[in-house]
Amino acid sequence: QVQLMESGGGSVRPGGSLNLSCEASHSTYTTICMAWFRQAPGKEREAIATIYQDSLTIYEESFKGRFLVSRDSAKNTLYLQMNSLQPEDTALYYCAAGPPTLGGALCPLKGTFDFWGQGTQVTVSS
Fold first, then answer.
1. What is the DSSP string of 21-73?
2. Closest CA to 99 of 89, 112, 88
3. pLDDT tens digits, the chain, 126 residues: what are they?
4. Which end of the chain is more exposed for a tag (fewer CB within 10 A), N or C?
5. CB atoms closer than 10 angstroms to residue 26
6. Rg (CA), the chain
7. Is residue 24 packed enough to be buried (19+ CB in 10 Å), middle (13-18) or exposed (0-12)?
8. Residue 44: closest CA among 60, 21, 68
9. 3-state helix, strand, coil in the chain (%, to 5)
10. Environment class of residue 99 by beta-carbon count within 10 Å: exposed (0-12), middle (13-18) or buried (19+)?
């Protein structure tokens, strides 16, 4: 079974940056798609971006230009570079993995993700 582990969370001042990592135990058909999600207290979980292998990406519109997802397939590691962080970005950030969707977008934002990490906390405050 695939296991995912996030790291890199912490506390940062408004305007700061943070780079999150997510290492997968191994690669299978069910880890072709990987994604970042976040959930703030009292709010629904929201998708940030997905990536197919280490190339094609899909971003939720509100995160474009400020957050950047990348992947090093050789290391089974997913990354999320977050810039210009604000207090509203405070949340528990999760990585996830799942199989590709055939016939359309390979890794849609609302696709099926079978494996999830434990989450890493990001806190933005003065």
1. EEEES---GGGSEEEEEEE-TTS--EEEEEEETTTEEEE-GGGTTTEEEEEEG
2. 112
3. 999 999 999 999 999 999 999 999 999 999 999 999 999 999 999 999 999 999 999 999 999 999 999 999 899 999 999 999 999 999 999 999 999 998 889 999 999 999 999 999 999 999
4. C
5. 9
6. 14
7. buried
8. 60
9. 10, 45, 45
10. middle
Token readout for 27 is 């690669």
Amino acid code (one letter) for 88: E
Residue 87's identity, in one-letter code, is: P
Tokens (6 digits) for 5: 């582990």
Q: Write out the two tokens for 123.
A: 């806190």
Letter for the amino acid at 115? Answer: F
